[in-house]
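Protein modeling request. Please complete all fields; requests missing the sequence field cannot be processed.
Requester role: graduate student
Desired output: 3D structure, token encoding
Chains: 1
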Amino acid sequence: MPPWVLVPLALFLGMVVFLAVGLTRNPQEIPSPLIGRPAPAFELQVVGGPGVFTAAQFKGQLTLVNLWATWCAGCKEEHPMLMALSRQPGLKMVGINYKELQASELSGQDPLGAGAVQKATSRSQAWLQKQGQAFGVNLMDMDGRVGMDFGVYGLPETYLVDREGVVRFKHAGALTPEVLQQKLLPLMRGLP
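Delivered output (192 residues):
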């Protein structure tokens, strides 16, 4: 076989192996580069209340951050888990409503414009009123910048931030009783 045929063949086989390995990995188990690092700096408007919330407010209290949206099926599925977690003493629950309005709903509007924000706020408040208010603080990430800083690639995603503001846990996808019992609660008990 001529040598010029071997190079493309070797590249093709390398890609096949790379893709095969990637397809066997569980996306919920992909480690976050944020683990062990300070939570990303941000400032977001508090939904239904005055003022803003910043990452600096994580300090001093164990905080569970959940990125969610009303259009997310997994978010509805995991909400009972979040309601149970909200009753944990000493745990602050922060919800970040991520890109509530899809591009098709904006029809050329600025996602940070007053009309878009009002529509998204009303929708998220109605959803939480129906499903239950799991979050002590709910924030609106209209353009998705904060979600991008957290490395979100799908909803829901949940992060545990320690009392020093350092990310200690990430879970992609809906929280399950197994994740809660085997990973999150033991980690919470082990943190000072």
